[in-house]
Amino acid sequence: MTFREAAKLAKTAGVTEMWLTHYSPSLTRPEDYLEEARRIFPNTKVGKDRKSITLEFDKDE
Predict the structure, then answer these.
(1) Which of 3, 6, 49, 53 supports an S-S bond with 37, CB 3.0-4.6 Å?
(2) CA-based nearest residue to 7, from 34, 47, 25
(3) What DSSP string runs through the chain?
């Protein structure tokens, strides 16, 4: 899946944030392709080793 395809999927799914992870090791500078994904889904980030986030869920949902 390309970054662009992932962005389309994230937009369709209605998520609030997308991390691009598990891309090819031959892609040494994923940031070079980030802008194309952000044009489709602005809240796109490139995942890095040891990057983490705490997810908080609304108990009422």
Answers:
(1) 3
(2) 34
(3) --HHHHHHHHHHHT-S-EEE-S--TT-S-GGGGHHHHHHH-SSEEE--TT--------TT-
Do residues 38 and 7 touch, judged by C-beta distance below 8 A? Answer: yes
Residue in the block written with tokens 């999927």: 9
In a 10 Å sphere around its CB, with 0-12 CB exposed, 13-18 middle and 19+ buried, how is residue 16 labelled?
A: exposed
Rounded to 5°, the CA angle 10-13-18 comes to: 30
